Amino acid sequence: MDQTAAASPPTPIQDRSGAARPRVAIVLFNLGGPDRPESVRPFLENLFMDPAILRVPGFIRPWLGKFIARRRTRAASENYAILGGKSPLLELTEGQARALDAALAGEAAEYRCFVAMRYWHPMSEEAARAVAAWAPDEVLLLPLYPQFSTTTTGSSLAAWEAAARKAGLSVPTTTLCCYHSDPAFAEATAALVRGAWDKARAGLPEGVPLRILFSAHGLPESIVKAGDPYQWQVEQTVAAVVERLGIEGLDHVVCYQSRVTPQKWIGPSTEAELERAAHDKVAVLVCPIAFVSEHSETLVELDVEYREEAERLGVPGYFRVPAQNSDPGFIAALRDLVRGARAGGRALCSFAGGRQCPKPFGDCPHARAKARVKEAA
Ligand SMILES: C=CC1=C(C)c2cc3[nH]c(cc4nc(cc5[nH]c(cc1n2)c(C)c5CCC(=O)O)C(CCC(=O)O)=C4C)c(C)c3C=C
Ligand SMILES: [Fe+2]
Ligand SMILES: [Fe+2]
């Protein structure tokens, strides 16, 4: 969708009493994905040249980033070929944007969602131009990553700040950094897990135990050790969802998928958990816990590669929980998060208002903002 073309010129919108309704642009952050086979390599170059992803001195990053991207292109292209040569992420994110627009219609403010992808179009600069053309009174930054990581939300925020400046956009901006254990988000996720759990149980012979693998995107361990709160937040999400599931004695584990560099990544890996499940003779229900849309890592890695691996290992059953996409419960949770963030009146907020991450996580954006204030004093 051309977000600029769709933006209408500012018109004075009034509520029933005749008072002007503020225009609020909601910017949805996501990672983005190639839109055709030829885009795979430049998409990967954008990703691996991001200083939030490739933490090496600036002078070697362009060279090394391009080198890693070139080496990864074949494997990634094979994955996208299974999906028809492109990622479905943009269409699904636009679906979420339109669903959230509809959920927020008729509020005291006039809302409009825009999509800003990090590594492929529409990227922040395009999105910021479209937002500026719509002439909002406020901007609300809403990551489609429930858990904050410097590699995802943190990177998107940096890209947005630069793009907004370039587009001359200087209206008050609210940033929602995370909603890892927001009650409505956790309940919507638990409802999807419950549906998949019931289907899996019905498809399994009696007596075969079922274990939930909550599978999140992995991160290099060094990033977590440097203070990234992502792993802690993933664990909070899982605890919140498990609590709402209320299944007595539930066998479950948190694990991490999609390792793409040779460094040590956080674990256990989802593959290692498949091996353990085979050893323990338990079936698995895999729940993507850090992705709110289907994309190559759910549709290919989970549905094709890990399923085949589970079969090869002799895991007695393999099932998957669908990602949220435009699930009404999830969209309602986002709507309430938008309302809460605006009502809270903070420029930077979590789902609960203030900082949630414990002290050691110095890369929590609240901790960084505090450090910046101290430095300036
Ligand atoms: C060092 C590399 C990477 C880190 C760290 C990383 C973190 C991270 N990523 C997501 C979500 C997504 N990643 C996607 C694609 C993707 N990610 C990496 C690398 C890292 N990600 C690569 C190389 C790719 C391209 C695909 C591939 O080569 O396999 C996507 C989009 C997928 C699509 O269908 O287009 C998402 C979404 C999270 C949540 C995260 C850390 C918290
Ligand atoms: Fe990734
Ligand atoms: Fe935090």
From TrEMBL:
InterPro entries: Ferrochelatase, Ferrochelatase_AS, Ferrochelatase_C, Ferrochelatase_N. Its main location: cytoplasm. GO terms for biological process: heme biosynthetic process. The keyword Iron applies. Pathway: Porphyrin-containing compound metabolism; protoheme biosynthesis; protoheme from protoporphyrin-IX: step 1/1. It is found in: Cytoplasm. Fe(2+) binds at H217, E297. CDD domains: Ferrochelatase_C, Ferrochelatase_N. GO terms for molecular function: ferrochelatase activity; metal ion binding. Keywords: Cytoplasm, Heme biosynthesis, Iron, Lyase, Metal-binding, Porphyrin biosynthesis. It comes from the Bacteria. Pfam families: Ferrochelatase. It catalyses: Fe-coproporphyrin III + 2 H(+) = coproporphyrin III + Fe(2+); heme b + 2 H(+) = protoporphyrin IX + Fe(2+). GO terms for cellular component: cytoplasm. Its EC number is 4.98.1.1. Gene3D superfamilies: 3.40.50.1400. SUPFAM superfamilies: Chelatase. HAMAP family: Ferrochelatase (MF_00323). Catalyzes the ferrous insertion into protoporphyrin IX. Belongs to the ferrochelatase family. This is Ferrochelatase. It comes from Roseicella aerolata. The lineage of its organism: Bacteria, Pseudomonadati, Pseudomonadota, Alphaproteobacteria, Acetobacterales.
